[in-house]
């Protein structure tokens, strides 16, 4: 378990798989990631089976002070040679706007730099997701560039913003 100020990040367990599918398919969260179709139980189960056998992606359930799961955060494409990983976060809509996102992401980033000894973490955010972009900027992420009109949703194209944070920037 990785402890933040208010939240705890714990390893994804088999029993969390349906919870994860619920968040992934949630109408308020669905348009905020690259998934195209809602995931079925079978697809989620298949994903979990392949997830369990690899080490480049790690999903953490975010538990609040009452040990209730409020969302998940993850490391993807963990690359030990270049000491970098992509990171992401999704909170249950009921748990948003209460400081959990900031605490959880800060905790994950600290773990990346201070335990995994990474040098760079990076992410992508859609141009209309102002709340997420504001959080990332607050944590020190720097915009590296834009993939123009890369994401199509609700009958419109959107830019995808690529951002990163280096270990020395995090220390500052
Ligand atoms: C983005 C997300 C992780 C932020 O977590 P959160 O718990 O809701 O946000 P917090 O309460 O920790 O607030 C962190 C910062 O976000 C920004 N923020 C929060 N609510 C905001 C809002 N309604 N509008 C704009 N910015 C907002 C602020 O900068 C805030 O910092 P401050 O409180 O010091 O001013 C969360 O809202 C979420 O999971 N959203 C849906 C999924 C998603 O968009 N994931 C990211 C995909 S790239």
Descriptive overview:
The chain has 172 residues and is of the alpha+beta class. Helices cover 31% and strands 35% of the residues. The protein is built from six helices and eight strands. An eight-stranded mixed β-sheet has the order 1-2-3-4-5-6-8-7. A hairpin with a 4-residue loop joins strand 4 (69-79) and strand 5. Coenzyme A is lined by residues 29, 32, 71, 89-91, 96-102, 125, 129-132, 134-135, 138.
Give the integer mean of the pLDDT values: 96
Bound molecules: coenzyme A
Helix proportion: 25-40%
- Percent range for β-strand residues: 35-45%
Assembly form of the protein: single chain
Q: What's the structural domain tally?
A: 1
Q: What is the ordering of alpha helices and beta strands?
A: EEHHHEEEHEHEEH
Rg, rounded, reads: 16 Å
Which class best fits the helix and strand makeup?
Answer: alpha+beta
Query: Could you tell me how far the N terminus lies from the C terminus, measured between alpha carbons in angstroms?
Result: 26 Å
Could you give the count of β-strands?
8
CATH topology: Aminopeptidase
**CATH architectural name:** 3-Layer(aba) Sandwich
Walk across the major sheet and give the strand order: 1-2-3-4-5-6-8-7
């Amino acid at each position: 378990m990785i402890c933040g100020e208010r939240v705890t990040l714990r390893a994804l367990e088999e029993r969390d798989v349906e919870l994860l599918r619920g968040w992934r398919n949630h109408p308020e969260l669905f348009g905020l990631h690259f998934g195209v179709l809602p995931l079925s139980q079978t697809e989620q189960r298949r994903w979990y089976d392949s997830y369990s056998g690899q080490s480049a992606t790690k999903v953490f359930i975010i538990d609040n002070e009452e040990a209730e799961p409020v969302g998940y955060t993850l490391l993807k494409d963990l690359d030990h040679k270049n000491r970098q990983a992509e990171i992401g976060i999704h909170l249950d809509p009921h748990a948003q706007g209460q400081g959990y996102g900031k605490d959880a992401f800060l905790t994950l980033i600290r773990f990346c730099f201070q335990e995994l000894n990474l040098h760079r973490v990076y992410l992508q955010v859609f141009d209309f997701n102002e709340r997420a972009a504001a959080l990332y900027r607050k944590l020190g992420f720097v915009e590296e560039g834009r993939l123009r009109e890369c994401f199509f949703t609700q009958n419109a194209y959107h830019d995808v913003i690529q951002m990163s944070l280096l270990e020395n920037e995090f220390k500052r």
